[in-house]
Write a sequence for this structure.
C-alpha cells in the first residue's frame, strides 16, 4: 500500500502523458510511420510478441552477464585501490579519462576487434557500468568513521581485519547506490552494443524496425528495454531490502 | 607500571605536546584534564597507537620498565564517541577485542555474555546499539574495553555524550567496575568535577604547547567524596585551569 502511494504521482503523470499523446495522434491524424499512438505501440508489441521476446532474452542475457562480471570486477579493483594508494593515484585519473570516450565511438570498435559474438557486448557493458561502482565503493570505504578504525587498530587489528570488520560494512549503502546507477546503464549499453553489430537483441531489432519504417515497433522495443531496466532496479532494491538488515542501522548509534 | 617518556607531538611545524612524561601505577585511576586543544586526547591516542596520520610524534612508552611498541595488547583504548559498531549486536560488539586478539568467536561470545548482568545489560545481548539507551551503550563499550583484560585502560572522555543524571550514575558505576581488578587507568576529561570525583590523581595539562603543569593526588576516600570534602581541591583546580586558559 505504501509503495502504491509512493508511485501514485508518477502513475498519474504517466497516464496524463499517454492520454495527451493518444489524443494528439487521433486529432492531428499523424501518420503511423512518423508518430504512432501509444495504442499502436501496444498493438505492435502484442503482434510481434514472440519475435520481441526472443530478442529481449538475448539482450537480457548479455546485460546480466556483463553487469554481473562488472560488479565482481569493480569490487576486486576497489579493494586493490583501497590497499594501494600508489595504484589509486595512478589508476583513478585513467579511469576518469576512460569515461570521456563516447560509447558511440567505442561500440563499433568493439565489434571490429572482437566480432559479433558475446564478448564485445559484454565488454562494452563492463566498460560503461564498472566506473560508477568503483567510485561508489571507494567513496564508501572512505566514509569509515575514524573512531571505528581507531577502536580496531588499538585492539591490534591488521589492515585487512579493519577492512573486513569496519570498512566493508560501512560501504554497503554506497555499494548499492553505485549498483543502482550502473544498472540504469546496463540495458542501454547492451542495446548500443547490439546496435553496432549483433545477430540478436533489442538493439538489432530496433535497427531493423527503423529500416522498415516501423516506428511503432521501435517504440515497442524501447518500452521493453525500459521495463527491463525497471526490473533490474527492482531486483537490486529487493536484494538490498531483504539482505543485511543489520547494516542498515543508524550509523550514529 | 606504564611509563610515558618525553612525548612530543607535532602538526607540521607546530608543536602540540612537548616533552610530556608521566607514570601510571597499577590500581590507580588517573584523570588528565586541561583546556580544549591542549593535546590531552592526542597523548592518549598516541599511547593507543592511533594518533592521527597528519601528526608526527617522538617519545617512548614502557610497561614494567620494558619499552613497549603501540598499539600494545596490554593497553586497551576507548574512543570518545561512536564506539559501538551499529551493525553488530551488543554481545558481538563486546567480544570484538577478544576476537581480534585471536579468540574463537563462540568462546568470545560465551565469555562476554557471562558479564552482561554485571554491566546492567542482561537480556540485551542481541540488541543493536540503536535499541539501547545512551547509558547502556556506554556500559557495553566499557564491557568491550574491560573484557580485553588489558592492564592499562585509556578512556577518552567516556561520559561526554551522556546526559547529566546518567553521567553521575555511570561515574560511580565505573569506579566500582574498575575496582574489581587492579589496573592502571588513564582517563581524559574536561570536567574537573568528574575528575575529582573519580580519580586517585589528577594531572593538569596546559596548552601552547601541551605540557603537564600539576600532579594532584586525591586522597579523600571514595565514600567520603562530596561537594564539601572536595571543595578546596576543585577550587584550586578551577583557578589553575582559568589561569592556563587566560
Amino acid at each position: 500500500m505504501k509503495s502504491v502511494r509512493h508511485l501514485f504521482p508518477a502513475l498519474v503523470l504517466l497516464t496524463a502523458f499517454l492520454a495527451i499523446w493518444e489524443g494528439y495522434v487521433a486529432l492531428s491524424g499523424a501518420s503511423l510511420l512518423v508518430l504512432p499512438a501509444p495504442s499502436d505501440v501496444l498493438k505492435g508489441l502484442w503482434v510481434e510478441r514472440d519475435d520481441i521476446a526472443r530478442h529481449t532474452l538475448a539482450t537480457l542475457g548479455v546485460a546480466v552477464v556483463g553487469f554481473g562480471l562488472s560488479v565482481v570486477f569493480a569490487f576486486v579493483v576497489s579493494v586493490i585501490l583501497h590497499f594501494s594508494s600508489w595504484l589509486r593515484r595512478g589508476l583513478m585519473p585513467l579511469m576518469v579519462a576512460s569515461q570521456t570516450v563516447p560509447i558511440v565511438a567505442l561500440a563499433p570498435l568493439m565489434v571490429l576487434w572482437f566480432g559479433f559474438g558475446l564478448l564485445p557486448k559484454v565488454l562494452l557493458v563492463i566498460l560503461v557500468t564498472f566506473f560508477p561502482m568503483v567510485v561508489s565503493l571507494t567513496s564508501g570505504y572512505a566514509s569509515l568513521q575514524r573512531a571505528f578504525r581507531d577502536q580496531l587498530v588499538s585492539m591490534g587489528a591488521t589492515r585487512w581485519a579493519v577492512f573486513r570488520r569496519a570498512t566493508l560494512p560501512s560501504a554497503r549503502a554506497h555499494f548499492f547506490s553505485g549498483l543502482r546507477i550502473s544498472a540504469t546503464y546496463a540495458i542501454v549499453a547492451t542495446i548500443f552494443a547490439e546496435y553496432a553489430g549483433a545477430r540478436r537483441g533489442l538493439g538489432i531489432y530496433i535497427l531493423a524496425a527503423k529500416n522498415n519504417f516501423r516506428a511503432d515497433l521501435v517504440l515497442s522495443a524501447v518500452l521493453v528495454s525500459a521495463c527491463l531496466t525497471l526490473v533490474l532496479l527492482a531486483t537490486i532494491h529487493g536484494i538490498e531490502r531483504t539482505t543485511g538488515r543489520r547494516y542498515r542501522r543508524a550509523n550514529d548509534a | 607500571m606504564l611509563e610515558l617518556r618525553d612525548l612530543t607531538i607535532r602538526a607540521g611545524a607546530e608543536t602540540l605536546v612537548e616533552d610530556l612524561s608521566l607514570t601510571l601505577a597499577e590500581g590507580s585511576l588517573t584523570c588528565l584534564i586541561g583546556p580544549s586543544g591542549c593535546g590531552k586526547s592526542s597523548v592518549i591516542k598516541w599511547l593507543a597507537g592511533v594518533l592521527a596520520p597528519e601528526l608526527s610524534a617522538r617519545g617512548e612508552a614502557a610497561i614494567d620498565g620494558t619499552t613497549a611498541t603501540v598499539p600494545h595488547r596490554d593497553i586497551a583504548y576507548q574512543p570518545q564517541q561512536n564506539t559501538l559498531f551499529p551493525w553488530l549486536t551488543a554481545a558481538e560488539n563486546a567480544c570484538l577485542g577478544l576476537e581480534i586478539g585471536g579468540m574463537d568467536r563462540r568462546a568470545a561470545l560465551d565469555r562476554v555474555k557471562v558479564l552482561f548482568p554485571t554491566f546492567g545489560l542482561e537480556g540485551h545481548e542481541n540488541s543493536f546499539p540503536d535499541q539501547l539507551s545512551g547509558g547502556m551503550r556506554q556500559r557495553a563499550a566499557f564491557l568491550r574495553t574491560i573484557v580485553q583484560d588489558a592492564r592499562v585502560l585509556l578512556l577518552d572522555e567516556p561520559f561526554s555524550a551522556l546526559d547529566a543524571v546518567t553521567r553521575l550514575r555511570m561515574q560511580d558505576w565505573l569506579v566500582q567496575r574498575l575496582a574489581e581488578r587492579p589496573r592502571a587507568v588513564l582517563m581524559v576529561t574536561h570536567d574537573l568535577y568528574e575528575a575529582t570525583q573519580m580519580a586517585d590523581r589528577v594531572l593538569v595539562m596546559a596548552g601552547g604547547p601541551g605540557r603537564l603543569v600539576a600532579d594532584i593526588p586525591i586522597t579523600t576516600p571514595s565514600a567520603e567524596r562530596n561537594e564539601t570534602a572536595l571543595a578546596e581541591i576543585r577550587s584550586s583546580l578551577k583557578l589553575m585551569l582559568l589561569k592556563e586558559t587566560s
Remarks:
- The first strand of chain B starts at residue 2 and ends at 11.
- DSSP finds eight helices and ten strands in chain B.
- Chain B touches chain A at residues 45, 48-50, 71, 73, 75-89, 96-97, 100-101, 128-130, 132, 137, 148, 154 (CB under 8 Å).
- The mean pLDDT of chain B is 89.
